[in-house]
């Protein structure tokens, strides 16, 4: 069987599912958000001064970064789970979150004296960040990997890694409501490393569990 015929057969199989793949992904995203919320609120919860923090640009900027990552990863993973679908535009949008963080870091370096750079980067909650973003994101990651099996990705390792980025963006959005470190330097360093853990786990999951 030619590759083109195989892709068409996989696409037909995906379309013949009891629930359309597009609807299934939205339901999976909703379920993942509920699971992440439950873990978040039953473990660390929001910071006590969140109502005050919400009036600061640096606090709100964290949600712009994390939601942008989750939104673009959601678009890409939906494309990757559909055989034959174009992924170029969705993949290009994945650059948006890193670019926003890079701009924020550049502004921070310009506005903050150099002796304070390392203090802002290290922060006061780096170990909590590294532990709780993966903890909040592991349930959503499992859901997204299961959804990849519902679809038929032709690049399961890449799809699994994107599932990890999606879970990481979702988890980081919840964690940002708890985090007292609002510096873009902190976000660029520790949020990225924590999300990378989930991306690595997702790639492994794609390698061993997402097969067709």
UniProtKB/TrEMBL annotation:
The source's superkingdom equals: Bacteria
Task: Give the InterPro entries listed for this entry.
Answer: NrsF (IPR009495)
Q: Does the keyword tRNA-binding apply?
A: no
Native source organism of the sequence: Mesorhizobium neociceri
Name of the protein in its database record: DUF1109 family protein
The transmembrane segments are 24-44, 59-80, 92-112, 124-145, 157-177, 189-210
Keywords annotated in UniProt: Membrane, Transmembrane, Transmembrane helix
Q: What is the lineage of its organism?
A: Bacteria, Pseudomonadati, Pseudomonadota, Alphaproteobacteria, Hyphomicrobiales
């Amino acid at each position: 069987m030619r590759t083109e015929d195989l892709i068409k057969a996989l696409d037909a199989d995906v379309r013949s599912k009891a629930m359309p793949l597009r609807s299934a992904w939205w339901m999976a995203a909703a379920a993942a958000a509920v699971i992440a919320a439950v873990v978040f609120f039953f473990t660390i919860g929001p910071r006590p001064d969140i109502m005050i923090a919400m009036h600061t640009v640096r606090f709100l900027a964290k949600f712009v970064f994390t939601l942008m990552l989750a939104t673009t990863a959601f678009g890409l993973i939906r494309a990757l789970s559909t055989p034959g679908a174009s992924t170029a535009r969705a993949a290009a949008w994945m650059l948006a979150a890193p670019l926003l963080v890079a701009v924020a870091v550049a502004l921070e370096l310009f506005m903050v004296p150099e002796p304070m750079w390392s203090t802002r980067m290290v922060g006061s909650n780096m170990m909590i960040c590294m532990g709780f973003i993966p903890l909040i994101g592991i349930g959503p990651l499992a859901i997204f990997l299961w959804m990849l099996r519902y679809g038929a990705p032709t690049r399961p390792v890449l799809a699994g890694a994107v599932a990890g980025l999606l879970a990481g963006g979702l988890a980081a959005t919840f964690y940002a409501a708890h985090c007292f470190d609002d510096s873009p330097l902190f976000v660029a360093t520790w949020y990225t490393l924590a999300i990378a853990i989930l991306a690595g786990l997702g790639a492994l999951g794609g390698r061993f569990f997402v097969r067709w």
